[in-house]
Amino acid sequence: MKAIRRFTVRPVLPEPLRPLSDLARNLRWSWHAGTRDLFRSVDPGRWAAAGGDPMRLLGSVPTERLTELAGDRDFLDRLAAVADDLDTYMTGDRWYQRQSGRLPAAVAYFSPEFGITAALPQYSGGLGILAGDHLKAASDLGAPLIGVGLLYRHGYFRQSLSRDGWQQEHYPVLDPHELPLDQLKEADGAPARIALALPGDRSLRARVWVAQVGRIPLLLLDSDIEENDLVERGVTDRLYGGGSEHRLLQEMLLGIGGVRAVRTYCRLTGHAAPEVFHTNEGHAGFLGLERMAELRAEGLDFDAALEAVRAGTVFTTHTPVPAGIDRFDRELVARHFGPHAELPHLEVDRILRLGMETYPGGEPNLFNMAVMGLRLAQRANGVSLLHGQVSREMFAGLWPGFDPEEVPITSVTNGVHAPTWVAPEVYRLGARQIGTQRAEEALSIGDSDRWDSVADIADQDIWDLRRSLRELLVLEVRERLRASWRQRGAGTAELGWIDGVLDPDVLTIGFARRVPSYKRLTLMLRDRDRLMDLLLHPERPVQIVVAGKAHPADDGGKRLIQELVRFADDPRVRHRIVFLPDYGMAMAQKLYPGCDIWLNNPLRPLEACGTSGMKAALNGGLNLSVLDGWWDEWFQPDFGWSIPTADGAGTDPDRRDDIEAAALYDLLEQRVTRTFYERGRSGLPDRWIEMVRRTLSLLGPKVLAGRMVREYVDRLYTPAAHAHRAMDADAARELAEWKAAVRGAWHGVTVDHVETSVASATAELGSTLALRVRVGLGSLRPEDVEVQAVAGRVDEEDRITDAATVPLKPMGSPGAGGEWVYEGPLSLDRTGPFGYTVRVLPSHRLLASGAELGLVAVPPEDVAEAAGLLMR
Fold first, then answer.
1. In what order do the strands lie in the sheet with 768-776?
2. Is residue 279 within 8 Å of residue 315, measured between CB atoms?
3. Where are the beta strands (DSSP E) in 671-767?
4. Could you tell me which residue ranges the DUF3417 domain spans (predicted)?
């Protein structure tokens, strides 16, 4: 019989055990070993059955056991120590509090998904895991972030396989009362509510749940409440589910509702109001519109409000291809804004212009969330050096007249939260070497000094550690594989072979990620005979563990999974290659440490960052990867191997896959397996162990989320906070009026004449040219512009590369025709082909970049030819 109503019955803890509730409700337990050890000791069997979730554990422990623990002096002493440690962690000064300068009072960090722990399944893949690691690292550093997301009643989805290997999706219902969440409540105890206006006099209401992530509050908006109609209740049903309008409503609730939730949270708790708003991908881009509406209510017009919002906004793009960006029909967007819907005091046509693809090749009838995100943010970044370059090229149309290198999108390479992803066995070895305190600091803050101590760990200890991690993975794989086959309909009598799956002494390769086509799950199957030879080699075998989910609507991705599963089902190789369904954080925390090699073979340059390989590296795994994302930036032969790519535009996709698969097989056959199995005089694989050691000592400090968050604070958050403070109402009006004047007058800005002191086509290194430039400024003044010389090496087509800019100074007063003369020196500081040009850019003290307005004036061809300088 089915229950007509569901309740969550919470355990009543004896008074001495009350701190257990606080420990369970702060998600720091998910990365703090001491807290997890304490909960495990409550009841090891129930802890395992609860999947390492303290809330579920406490809900299952019998009253007799709780009474016993309440009288156990040793347990109570441990409980007090762990509770005191959490209190110190929450209230003490950390890295952020020890910095000089006026750092942001608070930063609001918006993301559509957050991967904090398997006990709070609100993530689908890398974007969410990155967001979770960002919050956890910020907490460890003491950075005052407020996380903002949605609470999805079904999460993403749970994955299983049919008998023939086809992905099947399941959507279990999540009860917020059974999760480590608290409702945000008003002073009178009533639940706090957020409301959005919808067309047709309807409303979308949401309550706000708070997950405490260490020191960081994470606000999650939930529309599944009785005040909503059925459609509105379903807005937060699934992560990345539904059609266009469903997604639009999710993103409006995240952005607009999220700002309102932050304001409510700060009002009720006294938390400092954010000075910086960080948009993690375009899904939350509407937050800028809500902040503009706030400023309109204070008397600013649209343009001034836009400038004020841009000053304090950071936008991070994770998308390397236009197809990965959310785009909505402009009429759908228009219907949800304006006098009869949301943000009635913002002009709908101005809202639409923020998201329109008004550049060559753009779709004029589509509203692009990333384009809006970039236009609403004064600072933007990609998530690796290569991805920053890809992003500058992809969005260059927003800054016409500028080379992609000057498009104002920088990069902060992602990192991973080491305390979450480093296996306890690895941590214990490090703590034994340098002490617990220094080991914790090495993982959370990181610097080379702490990681250099890896050099002193004995070879035998490193090799024993790697084997023990491999053995733990083998046991985990067998357990999960048996459960998967039972779901697929197999009986126990059919599954005896699973006891022989994988071998703790065989080289183990891991491949786990989402399954879009560009990540090429099945590249390893390109030549099945060669793969079989690798798996079954009599002296140097390999074994492969594969996991990954395809989006429910992606049948192409599901076919790739089925192809891999059918190969792995072959009795000849099923002991050497396995596919594990339902890839998630709990599986990943066992998978990364147990793999000797982490394989990554996307189509370059379509991997924005690819942090899974970082997590493997922190556990001593070596990377075998295409030079894409972070691996392109930090690869060294000491850390692993790079898979050669066939990037030529003329290479058809099939041929490219053949070439790159062959290169992968060659590396495995000739270098990887030989390095793993060859033994030195000590009987150990000396070269392999040295690569593990150098991976940990040299790569370890770089891949930390602590390093990433420190970069965000130094390079993006702090400048954005300073810009926000400078952009009061008067400054915002001034900047908006100035921009309008400059745009209106720019047609009159010209470069009329350029001359130099050198007439020949050659010059000596170290010499200096005197440049003299005549420019027309129309109605603008010299203080409105900067005239620059741009110089550097030139390629075969005379394009300047590795350019340096030199500002030129106005001389005297304007001529009879209103033209100005600018002069300045140009140093010839490099040999070889060299060239220069001159240009005029808008200039204002409140601009973050000279490219911000997308305006530039350069010499016309006849002037350039007359003054052209090209030295070879």
1. 750-756, 768-776, 819-827, 800-811, 785-794, 834-842, 870-871
2. yes
3. 750-756
4. 13-120
Phi-psi sector, 201: left (phi>0), alpha (psi -120 to 50), beta: left
- The single residue listed with the structure tokens 């299983």 is 160
Give me the DSSP letters along 192-260.
Answer: PEEEEEETTTEEEEEEEEEEEETTEEEEEEE--STTS-HHHHGGGSSTT-S-HHHHHHHHHIIIIIHHH
Percent of the chain with pLDDT over 90: 82
What's residue 295's pLDDT? Answer: 97
pLDDT score of 760 more than 90: no
Amino acid at 114: F
- The pLDDT of residue 459 is 94
What is the Cα–Cα distance from 47 to 70, expressed in whole angstroms? Answer: 18
CA 431, CA 440: separation in Å to the nearest integer?
Answer: 8
SS3 793: strand
**How many CB atoms are closer than 10 A to CB 194?**
23
Which of the residue ranges 174-183, 277-286, 767-776 would you say has the lowest mean pLDDT?
Answer: 767-776
191 vs 202: CA distance, rounded Å = 21
- Evaluate if residue 871 carries a pLDDT over 50: no
Amino acid found at 620: G
Whole-number Å distance between alpha carbons of 336 and 83: 48
Tokens, residue 281: 């991908």
CA dist 765 and 749 (Å) reads: 34
Q: How does DSSP classify residue 713?
A: I
Q: Phi and psi for 5 in degrees, rounded to 5?
A: -150, 150
Query: Which stretches within 395-526 are classed as H helix?
Result: 418-421, 424-434, 436-444, 448-452, 459-487
Q: Give residue-wise pLDDT tens across range 802-844.
A: 788 899 999 988 887 788 999 998 887 777 787 888 999 999 9
- Number of helices (H) and strands (E) in the chain: give both, helices first: 33, 27
Q: Which H or E run includes 725? A: helix 718-726
Cβ-based neighbour number of residue 854 at 10 Å: 17
- pLDDT per residue as tens digits for the range 26-83: 999 999 999 999 999 999 999 999 999 999 999 999 999 999 999 999 999 999 999 9
Question: Alpha-carbon distance 726 to 847, whole Å?
Answer: 11
- Average pLDDT estimate for 787-805: 83
DSSP 569: T
Q: Are strands 202-213 and 182-183 parallel, antiparallel or unpaired?
A: antiparallel
Distance CA 601, CA 626 (A): 5
Per DSSP, the three-state class of 95 is: coil
What are 449's two structure tokens? Answer: 């000094």
Instruction: Report residue 82 as tokens.
Output: 């762990």
DSSP label at residue 741: H
pTM (whole model) above 0.90:
yes
Tokens read off for 527: 């030549």
- Left if phi > 0, otherwise alpha if psi is -120 to 50, otherwise beta: which for 383? alpha
